[in-house]
Amino acid sequence: MASDSLVKHISNYRVSSVLNRDVTSLGKQNLFDGNVETCWNSEQGTPQHILVEFAQPVYLRELHVQFQGGFAGSKTRLIDVDCKRDICPLFFEDNNALQTAKLPAAKQNVARRRIKLQFVSSTDFYGRIIVYSLDFRGSVAGEDTANGETARLK
C-alpha cells in the first residue's frame, strides 16, 4: 500500500507547551512548515505532546520526525485519542537525523481521526522536546490509491 504524506489532511493540531510562550518563533506551526531552520520547542517538564486531528479518517503507516539532538523524545507513546488507547510505543534515537517509526502491521489497517504523540520522557534533563519536522505517512480511509478515486465506505 502506498504511503503518502498526510500533512495536507490535518485539520487541527495542538501542542502541550511552547518555550517561554514564544509561539511566533517556537510554536506548533513550525512542525509542518517544511523549513529546517524552524522548530517547535516545548517548555520543560514531562510529559509533552503533539495532538493531531485529521479532516477525515486515515490509515497511519509511519511517522517521520527530526529532533534536535539532546532534546529528543526517548520514550514516546502513540495514542488513538478517540478510542483512548495506546496504538504502540515509539523509541527514537538522540540525534539530529530524520527518523522513521513504522507502526506494527496490525495497527496500520485501523482508520484513525485524532492521534497524540506523547513524549513520556526526554533526553533533555529538564524534559524539553525540540522537533524540526514531523510527517505522518499513510493513506486516507476510503480512497482507492490505485487510481485516486474515492471508494464508497460501507
Assess the beta-strand content as a share of residues: over 45%
**What gross morphology would you assign?**
globular
- Which secondary-structure class do the elements indicate? mainly beta
Largest β-sheet summary: 9 strands, antiparallel
Poorly predicted tracts of residues: 145-154
Q: Tell me roughly what share of residues is in helical segments.
A: under 10%
End-to-end CA span: 20 Å
Number of strands: 9
Query: What number is the mean pLDDT?
Result: 92
Please work out how many helical segments DSSP would assign: 1
Estimated radius of gyration:
15 Å
Question: Helix and strand succession?
Answer: EEHEEEEEEE
Structure description:
The protein is 3% helix and 47% strand. The protein has 154 residues and is mainly β. Strands 1, 2, 3, 4, 5, 6, 7, 8 and 9 form a 9-stranded antiparallel beta sheet that branches. Strand 5 (73-80) and strand 6 (85-90) form a beta hairpin. The longest helix has 4 residues, at 23-26. The protein is globular and about 40 Å long. The model is unreliable at 145-154 (pLDDT under 50).
